[in-house]
Description:
alpha/beta, Rossmann fold, 342 residues, 9-stranded mixed beta sheet
Amino acid sequence: MNTxxxxxxxxxxxxxxxxxxxxxxxxxxxxxxxxxxAGYQAGVxxxxxxxxxxxxxxxxxxxxxxxxxxIDSKDMASALWTTxxxxxxxxxxxxxxxxxxxxxxxxxxxxxAYLLHLAVKSAKPVVLTAAMRPxxxxxxxxPLNLLNAVTVAASEKAHGQGVLLAFNNRIHSARDVVKxxxxxxxxxxxxxxxALGWVQDGRVEFQRSVVRAHTTATPFAVGAPWPQxxxxxxxxxxxxxxxxxxxxxxxxxxxxAGTGNGSIHATLQQALAEAAARGxxxxxxxxxxxxxxxxxxxxxxxxxxxVSAGTLNPYKARVLLMLALASxxxxxxxxxxxxxxx
Length: 342
């Protein structure tokens, strides 16, 4: 489906052109009654209905809407990731599109956003948004989030900032943002360094710029088969069963959600060291909600061939490791340079 929403006025014809790609999620969810914010079905409201709920969009941009998927984002899969990246790149390559907004579920939004941050090949704005309450709820947060996302995507200030999230009036970088609450409308934060800026009442302000390389400054692409990368966790009494089973199944990479500064239980560390010796890429991240994992800080990375994820949480580290392996990078020293760069 491709539904242009246009106005006949001369003023409207001068507005930026923004493509809205809908993928489902809570923002497109509906429940039996307005007081229900948990027992709803995600992804059942179409993109045309989402847009119709925000008439102010017509004063911000000329919208081209597409229903790319209708899923609960907990079920996001690599095939849809590939489709999404390819569609975003195709849209942004057109002179008829000035920016892209993606409506998405909150559960895996930070992973999708970081993937796009690494694989989109344009300086034009790409802005994700979502909701913590279904569209049928009292005080649904989706309509304002959608309006703000389109406002950011239509702003010249957003050019060159990489992939962004507009949520609860804040603008976050895809690299930094994480979901921090199961229920609050202020569910997304950038714990280490804060939001990039804010958007309110049509005004877009950036307080800082993205420093690490992204979008057009990365070598990453999608299209080839995704390498199998899994996540394991370190905790009291952990066994090596999961690592041994994954290695036997032919996994290409393992990200470990370590304790503290990426520290790993001795039993698990031995299994991971043996995996690395067999050519499996091993990346140390942390299960802690913020901070960074220092190389050689909690494990002898140099001796064992491990890679530090730096400030990336395990889920984002998995995204970067998959893209790096798919691009042909597998040596631990080269992988560490990738994690230090992106």
